[in-house]
Amino acid sequence: MSTISTTQVISDSALDKPRTGTWDGGNEPFNASYGKLMMWFFLLSDAFTFAAFLTTYGLIRHRYAAYDPAVNGAFHFSTKWWPVPDKVFNAFPGMGHADVPLGFVALMTMILIFSSVTMVLAVEAGHRMDKKDVQKWLLWTILFGATFLSSQAWEWSHFIHGTEKGTLMNDGTVFHGANLAMNQYGPVLFADLFFFITGFHGTHVFSGVCLLVWCFIATTNGTFEKRGHYEMVEKIGLYWHFVDLVWVFVFTFFYLV
Amino acid sequence: MAHHAPAQSTHVGEIPKPNVGWIWKTFFVLVGITALEFVFVFLMDPSTLRNSIFIVLTIFKAFFIVAEFMHLKHETKGLIWSVLIPMALLVWLLVALVTEGNAIHNAIY
């Protein structure tokens, strides 16, 4: 205590004045806590990983021939050209052989966007210290996240099992569906990229759901209420929105373009 | 931790009213852009123009998610730039490797 009063006495001298600039320490120059900043920089590095995947997709897609109706006739799967996405992803659960181009992936996109909304609502409720609302919106987010994962499981299963017709391969046999070495839709790398890109994204969604479940339990136990703030919900929210953001890009570059 | 405090001052134990209008506005913008993308998928034949439209719409969607949902618009300038500047390098990588892919294609076919 005595040291403080001593400092006050000599602080009139300009030399000994404490430095109070933005970067002189003792404050948060970015106005964000350590945890939030680290989440931002983790997400930046994760964005680089996903960008590497999508850039690889761009390179490989441009390396193969595109399907041209004028030259190749009516569309059919062939290892000679890159498949058209609306012809590959045109099945809908419970609709048998109906042709619903990109219908299911549209639904999955809506589910993920909606889960982002319920996540922001949870963060907003956290700012108001409203424990009940935080719980409610976290539960909705978990529900939509789990629904997205189940949809992706269905999508994978359908992609792996393929269509009844299959594709006549170069060795004269008919192949159905896809694995990492062979697929009925087009060049081998098409299925490989599908598995790696949507798989890596799905793993992120799964981790997000795990974090949300943990967060829900901590909220219910009153951990954040005792701490005096719900910043953890905000940090997990940043991660969750990032997963939605990645899906926006995967959706465009894998399914639309 | 002043920025965690609720916007309006309230009595202890009282929970302020939710302020969620902006959240639903952003949601409808995102849904609208996605719907627009589907319109282009079905009404336009694949072309460089269509792909460019998709990329522009995707960047719009990304902007709304990052700026509003992730709150980046309301952070300090230093944080905004330290996130955005490294992303510019990715655009360079993408352009470089797609060009490379075209070069390989031309060498093969």
From TrEMBL, chain A:
Which membrane topology term applies here? Multi-pass membrane protein
Sorted alphabetically, the Gene Ontology BP terms of this entry are: aerobic electron transport chain
Q: Which domain of life is it from?
A: Bacteria
Matching InterPro entries: Cyt_c/ubiquinol_Oxase_su3, Cyt_c_oxidase-like_su3, Cyt_c_oxidase_su3-like_sf, Cyt_c_oxidase_su3_a-hlx
Residue span, Heme-copper oxidase subunit III family profile domain = 1-257
Q: What is its main location?
A: membrane
Q: Enumerate composition-biased segments (Polar residues).
A: 1-11
User: Positions of the region Disordered?
Assistant: 1-22
An example of a Pfam family matching this protein is COX3
Q: Which residues cross the membrane?
A: 37-60, 102-125, 137-154, 193-217, 238-256
Q: Which SUPFAM superfamilies match?
A: Cytochrome c oxidase subunit III-like (SSF81452)
**Entry GO CC:** plasma membrane
**PROSITE patterns the UniProt entry points to:** COX3
Compartment annotation = Cell membrane
Task: List UniProt keywords, sorted A-Z.
Answer: Cell membrane, Membrane, Transmembrane, Transmembrane helix
Q: Which GO terms describe its molecular function?
A: cytochrome-c oxidase activity
* Similarity comment text for this entry: Belongs to the cytochrome c oxidase subunit 3 family.
Protein name per the record: Cytochrome oxidase subunit III
TrEMBL record, chain B:
GO cellular component terms? plasma membrane
Which keywords does UniProt give here?
Cell membrane, Membrane, Transmembrane, Transmembrane helix
Is Cell membrane among the key words of this record? Answer: yes
Domain of life from the UniProt record: Bacteria
Q: Does the keyword Transmembrane apply?
A: yes
What is its subcellular localisation?
Answer: Cell membrane
Q: TM segments? A: 22-44, 53-72, 78-99
Look up and give the membrane topology term. Answer: Multi-pass membrane protein
Q: What is its main location?
A: membrane
One Pfam family cited in the UniProt record for this chain? COX4_pro
Record-linked InterPro entries: Cyt_c_oxidase_su4_prok (IPR005171)
Specify the protein name.
Cytochrome C oxidase subunit IV
Q: Which organism is it from?
A: Hymenobacter rigui
